[in-house]
Amino acid sequence: MLETVEQRNALLASIERERDSAVIAYILHDNAVIADDALPHLYDKLHALGKRPRIDLLLSARGGVPEVCWRILSLLREYCDHLGVIVSTRVQGAASLLALGADEIVMGPLSEMGGVDAIRKHPLMPRDEMGQPLPVSLGEIKSLLRFLSEQSGDQEAQAGSTSKTQNPKPKTHNPGLAPEVLSNLFQYIHPLTIAHLQQADTLSREITRKALRQHIHPENEDKTDQLVELFNGGFNSPIYTAGRSELRELGLPVEEPDKELWSSIWGLIQLYQGAIYTDRPDANVPGNFFRYICMIETAGRSTGLHQSFTQVEGQERIVQIRWETAIKSSGPGPSIGPGGMSNN
Fold first, then answer.
1. Residue of 73, 21, 30, 29 lying closest to 51 (CA atoms)
2. Residue 297's closest CA among 65, 63, 4?
3. Domain containing 246: what range?
4. pLDDT, tens digit, for every residue of 46-100?
5. What is the C-alpha to C-alpha distance for residues 46 and 23, in angstroms, rounded to an integer?
6. Measured between alpha carbons, how far is 80 from 74 in angstroms, rounded to an integer?
7. Tell me, what CATH number does 257's domain have?
8. 274 within a domain of the structure (yes/no)
9. Which is nearest to 44 in space by CA: 74, 65, 24, 28?
10. For residue 234, what is the DSSP state?
11. Has residue 223 got a pLDDT over 60?
């Protein structure tokens, strides 16, 4: 985590000068999501910064817990008057709530944002070949039900067209799925899982609306409604991502960095990617390896989520996960943080 700390500090300082703001980097590995264990470490950085007119969050995350993302958004806004989110390469899932709730979204040529719609696991869901519950979204369930309903309606229409009745009845709305179809469906998808997904979808929509209301005027409720629908299933794909031009056309406060600013942002992103996607031998336990799956950093204050693992029959087995913090003091000599790490 500390190999390139001086370079990262220099780039963070450069972005702060360009943006006239305090910058917090929050970078996650593809296998990690925003969760509540990060809150104390984010608070540590905010507390050290104090209340600022402007704070920028440099964010890279493929998912998160919606409730936690809303809590983080609220916490960030307590420490600034203007919140910006700098989208590194990709922000998806509940992590997109942080950008949707920002006053300004800074996006470069490679920056992308995806939908918020919740993909959840439940012990009663169908399982994969490893015996783990499959992650499913409510949108997938709705699409399945809609497809089955349409097929049922088509069959009824075909049957009606071949009948020889003297007084055909006027066409009515589709009555829905037949009981036997639902009964067969529930053999594969337990009804409690659908209730679980419905609850998650409702929560996701409510938090998305609350995030957008941080900067969209109440008079523009139609705009808010459209964005809520779009980011909660409207993309029709959990992995679809939109670039800056598309998001600006949708009415989001997207800004493009100039060449110099993007050069600093992109250089910093590459350093973070090198830090979190490099597996290293664990000096304390021969045969084990470690990586950092999350980094939260301001200039002079670094925290990483250290994950130790080993290989067992070709499969990774996590041995230990712990947070480590290093603090750079202004004076000479090594600076040791709670994780027992030195920046020198």
1. 21
2. 4
3. 5-115+235-327
4. 999 999 999 999 999 999 999 999 999 999 999 999 999 999 999 999 999 999 9
5. 10
6. 10
7. 3.90.226
8. yes
9. 24
10. I
11. yes
